[in-house]
Amino acid sequence: MQPVNLFHLASQQSQWLTVRQSAIAGNIANVNTPGYGTAEIEPFEKVLNNQSVSMKATQAGHFEAGVTNAAFAVRNESGKNSVLPSENTVVLENELMKAGEVRRTYELNTAIVKAFHRMMMLSVKG
Hints:
This protein is mainly alpha-helical. Helices cover 49% and strands 5% of the residues.
């Protein structure tokens, strides 16, 4: 019988969500910075496919707040958003929608782990 890796998978997704939320927060913080390019974390599917990903800064000085310890790559989405007159590609509405998506995903992740833990504890008691 294969060991259940749900807790490891949930932990990886939580780390990925933390890095993604940090990138989104950085985008929101730099919404008025001229020339700032939107940063996004590569999809979680790359982690599931066991592809090696590494943190990449799109500009010098990005992600100095401890996020560099994560093993998730950041990609620049400058081509996806319309460039504003300040040559900034951050669209605040998109970043807020991404932040909401991260919150919902984290809540789902936590609920699944909690239910699985409860199920395991019931099987041990019985």
